User: Fold these one by one.
Assistant:
Number 1:
Amino acid sequence: MALAFDEFGRPFVIIKEQDQKVRLRGLDAQKANIASGMAVSRILRTSLGPKGMDKMLQSPDGDVTITNDGATILEQMDVDNQIAKLLVELSRSQDYEIGDGTTGVVVLAGALLEQSQKLLERGIHPIRVAEGYETASRIAVEHLEKISQKYDFGVDNIEPLVQTCMTTLSSKIVNRCKRSLAEISVKAVLAVADLERKDVNLDLIKVEGKVGGKLEDTELIYGILVDKEMSHPQMPKQIEDAKIAILTCPFEPPKPKTKHKVDIDTVEKFQTLRKQEQQYFDVMVQKCKDVGATLVICQWGFDDEANHLLMHRNLPAVRWVGGVELELIAIATGGRIVPRFQELTPEKLGKAGLVREKAFGTTKDRMLYVEHCANSRAVTIFIRGGNKMIIEETKRSIHDALCVARNLIRNNSIVYGGGSAEISCSVAVEAAADRYPGVEQYAIRAFADALDSVPMALAENSGLQPIETLSAVKSQQIKENNHYCGIDCNDAGTNDMREQNVFETLIGKQQQIFLATQVVKMILKIDDVISPSEY
């Protein structure tokens, strides 16, 4: 390698043997693409299932993240290869659409790529492989529909929802508290759900965390939690039947828009200016008192004089509250966000049964609870934990549980987990392959083999013999015609997932198969990679 300069004095590098490098095309390019995708899949394979391992990721800034969530691992990995980036996008799509199954979808895609490599080496054209995969994915999705079950639940019967969320949480770091966290997630979703329209707005569920306490101290608050305290230490810490003025205008005198300069050369002028400023504050505070407000929540700050005046007028206030929190407080309390003091009226005040300030541990950390609101369709999940990493991972786990509960409300069909659905689909796809006379039947059988990789990974991660365990479970499914036999990852003594209460949402499993097949088809059809410098 040597450094040279062009006619404009710009440096460039001459790499030896550059002329001997050959760009990959055709079958070689496809094999290289498949190898890139399989490399990403192998990273996530060990994180699958309840006994899956965690990954420690270090950012360039030195921040450390410990997680086994597929979407988070791929999001924080520094991936340069374009094909590997497709699998990162695949995991992200599953996360956006379903919220769960982000590891499984990448493992399935990697298995499909591995099988397609064998088919390409046997001389089968990539287009025929892609068509076979498409046919097999349709067969698998239709079979999932047949073996799925409807799960009835209601506001009084939340156990089915809790059990499904527990399945999701069982593969996370927080699995020792999965029962309590699943109940909190389900109650939060039902609090904001519109069951008639089968719609859930997850934006109304705020997830907050604070270091300290135990994971078991995590609680659901039917209201809003704000990481702020009263602006003056002598203001009351608890207000009952609060009428809240929600302001986006600052407690300060108006500023001219143009550049200005004030010359003060006598004491009298200074006192006049100070009096005028005080009058502004007086008018603002009096306006809040006149409309009947007993608490002021302001997006901006206010100086010590305004703070002192608010305390003396017995009007508690909270300052520097973020815009998102303001919107949630307005939704929960039924109030309106007021941009100018002149527009403040009694009808625009929010109402809450109790507003209280709570201190934590021996530190001076305090938070504000806004509870028993007029509109309880905004809730907060408050997470406690020993360190920041535990809290962040718990937030990710609860996000998955919330998404699963939302998906069940939208579509209450479930399939059983533990790899039972994949094994059943594999058997159905294998049986259907004989009906296709063309070369596609090889691809359809390869798809069935790829589906087996998910239960095999579950067995491997649980410390079981993967091939023996899979063969025994598949044989049991076929003999007993029981589609609910899966891998006994938890050593419960039974392979029947109905008895273990391990199940997943139907739409989540269908989406995994659809997305993995689409991405693998796209990778198979790429036979050349051209960089910008080459055209």
Number 2:
Amino acid sequence: MASPHKVLLSLLSITLFSFSVSPVSSQHEHPLDPLSPVEFSLIRDAVKRSYGASGENVTFQYVGLDEPDKSLVHSWMSSQASKKPPPRRASVVVRLHGQTHELVVDLSSHQPSIVSKEVYHGHGFPMLTIEEQTDAIELPRTHDEFIQSIKNRGLDMSSVVCSTFAVGWYGELRSRRVVKVLAFYTNGTVNFYMRPIEGIVVVVDLDLMKIVKYHDRFATTVPTAEDTEYRLEKQNPPFGPHLRGAAIVQPHGLGFDIKGHTISWANWKLHLGFDVRVGPIISLASIYDLEKDKYRQYAGNIMWRHTEVGIPDVKINEVRSDVSLVVRSVSTVGNYDYILDWEFKPSGAIKFEVGLTGVLEVKAVNYTHASQIKEDEYGTMVGANTIATHHDHFFTYHLDLDVDGAPNSFVKTNLITKPVAEEGVPRKSYWTVSSKTARTESEAQLHLGLEPCDLIVVNPNKQTKVGNNVGYRLIPGPIASPILFRDDYPQIRSAFTNNNLWVTPYNKSEKWASGRYVDQSRGDDTLAVWTKRNRKIENEDIVLWYTLGFHHVPYQEDFPIMPTLSGGFELRPTNFFDRNPVLKTKSPEPVILSCKP
């Protein structure tokens, strides 16, 4: 067995996150450390300085670490003591005079400077900033037509709030950088998403920051505020169900060590970074085939167990408690809250889970009972005058797996049924496996759920003692695939969801499955487009792109706030170790607490 075995990963999701960081020095111990507040200030100053008098009109749409090439990172890791980290750079997207500018800022010099500056002329626009969305939602309050529409509905303007929504793309030849602004009513509740003011659509040009279209097409009954509150202090007795408390204790201190942005726990070591677009970025996750003397907190699950009663006069009952290190991020995107967990296990497995909670998107109707609905309303009646609409959630993970080295291959192992050919055998069939290594991108594009199979990334250049290629396999959870027509505009833009799994050769520029500029994109810069080149992926540095999804048909239990709905998948060692890597792990001693009645 190679010693020590390790797997290196870079794990990304496409969901938007916000985060905060503490002020730290601009000096970094690791080339993948996220940008610090000091560096953000230096970047801002360098960009504004480069534009001279126009610098004050620049808006920053995206600022993130321009990650060094993988080869430079690996070279630095192999000799950290004698080498300086690779040059540190930032990738910046700004808007100025109605144009999108792509910049690279060099942070290595005493005075950071712009080393690359290009104007983007393609389709789509960059991320929306909080500041411009805040400005946009204030515009209707001083717009005469909006004021009159609110007055006509008999509503109090002081209880009206607005929110921005993307406009999408539906075949228009030209696009303006605009957003829709919709109105809601808060009177009697903070859960304003449950009280939409239907019929009013405001369109705001973000570059001009003014209302360019206004529609008041119809009016419906605004749903009542009754039963929409979710704050505990606003609930009335009786309360329940009653849950007994659980104590979380760490009698020996933290079970993990943090140095800078590097986390060490049990037999795992990983780097945790952040990006404003994807949130947490876990990279260089390594597991060693060594035992470490670290305390582990008891988690209650089972790592492995077996009871044996087949030996006369002998009873064996062996069990080991499972313990996990969970890296969790929570992001609020409008009405929804997304909980993303990366769960690292001593066995070498990594489990990924997405939890959906928050508030449903609803529309107001004049119905008060489901029996009144005679045509498709595209959702479920969850309350009087309230329809919660059908919708999808898709999450694409960028999995850069370097399994015991960069050159890897993707193997699909099909489970196939065969007839029994031997005479005199009562069985008629059995199943076996048939494996195929994908040579090009097209051979690795999979629509899962139709046939049983194992999906394995192997290193064809490394074998275990008995000769199996070392690898990791992807174990999907519940499968959800898009059910729109392929030529429907939303699906053209999200064609990266057409397959549950894609495999590409590593390319630093191919970072976002949906393309760099998603707002009003046209689907011409996505994973589905890149893979048309059908590049070689056998025994190469490859990336897996896995999409998990949810088709959400709302129900009344999701109202007024939704219990968490979860889904996920797992990466699991596959002939990576010579035997069970947690065979000799001891369960932590239970902690006995004295409780008073």
Number 3:
Amino acid sequence: MCTLHFPVQMQSDIRTALHVAFSSIGSLSPFRRSTLTLPPRCLRPAASLGLLSRPFSTSASLPDKPSICTADELHYVSLPNSHWRLALWRYHPPPQATPRNHPLLLLSGVGTNAIGYDLSPESSFARYMSGQGFDTWILEVRGAGLSVQGSNFKEIKESANAVSEQMEAVAKGVTNGMSPVQQPNNVSDTLSDSEISHFGQDSIGIATAWDESKLVSKLTEILMRLSERLSGFLSDGQSRLISAKLFDQISNLLEGSELSDRLEEVRANLSNLLEKQQNSGITSQIRDLSQRLVNIIEEGQRSVSPQFIDMQERLSSTIEDFQKQLDLIVKYDWDFDHYLEEDVPAAMEYIRAHTKPKDGKLLAVGHSMGGILLYAKLARCGFEGREPELKAVVTLASSLDYTSSSSTLKLLLPLADPAQALNVPVVPLGAMLAAAYPLSSRPPYVLAWLNNLISAEDMMHPELLKKLVLNNFCTIPAKLLLQLTSAFRERGLCDRSGKFFFKDHLHKSNVPVLAIAGDQDLICPPEAVEETVKLLPRNLVTYKIFGEHQGPHYAHYDLVGGRLAVEQVYPCIIQFLSQHDD
């Protein structure tokens, strides 16, 4: 087995190439227009009805199951106190398969959906496991794949079909040589007005006439949202940080003028109000100060100085752009703890209710972040003295601590700065990879090395790699990445409070674990996997690296969808799960 080191020069090359990829899809600056396409609009919140206790469809042949879903059934799970409906892809064992005692839950990596586990009939981890007798379920966490928001069955169905159509349109567009950001009309129709204007080429028109009352109302609304809805974003001080960004933009419009001092006075008063608890009196004060701010701009507009030409339009544009950034922050407002504390438990409870294992336990396999979720669950339950309700766990390319490795994920470390997370509230991973795909798969192969982050040379059929790149990745909240970057700091991954470090409690687990690494995995190298493996009780952990010095080699996704996985990796997993299922 070989250990692969990631040179500093290649890290520099990656940054350069990512810049190229970003350039091909537009800037992510909240105050610039770009042409990114985000996932279809989530339906507006409505009263949670606790519905969807039945499968979305009962077989793959029924016409109402989205065409992108290749499972036997598609189920939806309601989350308590949330409008999210999580998608569960189910694969039934054939009648002739060996009967099993426990269902199997599959968890995917960050920003990915169920397709990675079911690329094709010949390369399907999920189908293979069900063929071995395991009732297999793939969870798509909130924001991934066919998981959507909605209040009734009809809305869920319509939204899921819209997601499916968009995913297929992206793949078809790239195949036909069309830019991945040039979407058909029926796809753009599914986006919210805010997203179209922020990420599309056609922006919302800014009125040329000075509409003072409208502008005051819009500015007041933004400031109220900063105080009311965003106070819990990232940490207690972030609403002040993001409001400061807005004020900076407005201040730039008046820079060097005699009105600057008056603006600073209003700014200071508004900042103080944003930190206070909301009540009707404060609401009135915020509106009054918004009016004063607009009045200052209006006075500058009446000035003969060229500096104030089109001042109202520039202020309106600044406020509109800032509004869109707030919309993204609110829409993509979840982190790793939401997955751990809400999504995974809800899915496990649902699966237990439908499969009824005698001991109430599940088997679980997690790839990348999916494995990190399983490690975190074992650690949390060990700390609290609770039963994790897992019979055995398999992790593929996962770790709680990347500090000792040369993982390419260290490129995410700049997002550890909350200010950067606010500058870029989401990372459209799917759009980025789709934009970069032509440069990595066609001459002159400028970004060909990007493929090596996913699959080692000759380990995945080109068509399957293409499907994986174009259909498997989603948009990631910066808030989620912000928490995951703690895995690159001392003591490893921690919860959102920054006080609970999962690796400190992993030794308390009583669940058998098979940890698997790929010898050429640049995202989660073997040394990162080993860093977590050594924390588990020795009698409960089995560790294996796949790949040979002379080849074949395994990169990040080869453990799941590589051409040799069905011969080398899958049987190893089956042997481990079968042993503990019995």
Number 4:
Amino acid sequence: MGDFNNYGGTDEENSEIARLTADVEADTDNFENWEKLIRACESLDGGLNRNSSPQALATLRNSYDRFLLKFPLLFGYWKKYADLEFNIAGPESAEIVYERGCASITNSVDLWTEYCSFKMETTHIPHLVRELFERAATHIGLDFLSHPFWDKYLEYETRQEAHDKIFDILKRVIHIPMHQYARYYERFRQLAHTRPLEELVSAEELARYRAEVEGEAVHLGLQKTELEVERDIRGKIDQFFYLTFQNTQTETTKRWTYEAEIKRPYFHVTELDHSQLANWRKYLDFEEAEGDYNRIVVLYERCMVTCALYDEMWFRYARWMAGQEGKGEEVRNIYLRAATLFVPISRPGIRLQFAYFEEVNDRVDRARAIHEAVLDILPDSVETIVSWANLERRQAGLDAAIEVLRAQIASPTVSIYTKAACVTEWATLLWKVKGSVDEARAAFSKDADAYADSRHFWQQWFDFELQQPTNSEMETKHLELVKRVFTQMCTKSRLSLGIKQELGRIYMNYLQNRGGKEAMKDFLDVDRQMFGPRSVSLAAKAKDGKENGVVPELDPTSRLKAEGRFYNYYELHADPDENAQGLADFN
């Protein structure tokens, strides 16, 4: 805001705005803090007007601009901002705000209708007003709840006494399945009786109707006057439009069930009920089955306002669009909106999907940049690090992949537990890509002390050894290698008893199924150490923090990090439970 000591109000007002600004900057996702800041800015100088100080006006504009950059789908605040600009600086400034708002929430019936209403009152050049109405129609004309917009358009043409244009609008609207569809047909039908035949249908259709009427007259041996011919033609046209009405009625009825279940058609930062998400899924399934591309896009865009913070819906929209021929830029736009505006970076799945899309489209540098951007904010996102390493493996080879992992391991901003995951991925690449078991084992062994408190590290090393192929001659050596990992885990790590028992069960199962003659001795030793009473259990002694060479457990906070599991989006993805109740968590 430039001068942080002067927001254009009294000392008390400036102090309050400074405090609220700090609150907003400390937690930009807190909607209530933003609302408090906006209200405080609006009340500067006892209420802002064109005579308010430049500092106060700058404070208001800056707050609104930042607020609506963070929450661009709040049509009510765009309207409020436009009204304020109109009162402060006049119609040109207000129009700029309306343009920005309609660009940010292109499918808002309310905002476009307000903009058109504003234009009607402030512009006296009809073709400019009509151009705006037509622009709006391309974005919201097919919306099921677009009747306020069409009413406003008809109101304008009624003011202009442009009966031909009123008729043209009605002729378009009667084809659209939407709320209050019937009254448009009734008005259209009344007007149709007063309009020339040439306005009702095309020249080709009119010629066909005339030929039918005259042919029927000849067949019956009748001689009809021109007036009678016109009356019969109108009857056929009226029947044609009645069939149109019936089709619109049918299509409206099909959608009514879904529309009736939409309880919150606008954006808000709070969660939706599970039932609302389920209804959107069913509605989208229905519209996709109908197969009308434009109507499907309109419904998706409506859904993405209400469900903007649910990455599930962005994934669905992008996948559907990707299935349409020649819609690559549209898919990119969907990913961009999701990644840059709506889905928090704490859920990186949609951004990584965007990176894969760019990679497929030969924009590898952009795919890299997406990964880098995520890690700038989430340096401990193991999913992103592994994804980036594999991007480099695919595009530049194994050494490039390892370089990504090496950089993260060396980074001072990356936690020790994330570094442990990077080491295991490094070892996995050496094993599965390079084919070097010895180098992979060396990677694990070299860092066993540094990452001894990482559950993921021991789990991956354990799995690595268990998956090595053996035969009867090699089984003894194999047992030694597996036992070494388990023993080091027990003696070096400070993991909880539960995690050690979990790995202990895997080792005991290995001893039962693949061990030799002496295996059951180890089996019973592990059983005692892991599951015996405190007096004989090494794991229990560690839990108690006892000495005698037993490493004590981690404190609760560190243990939560040390024993965390790393998942990618698809490992956590599951089909939604359509019977779930209550609020649907964004995560």
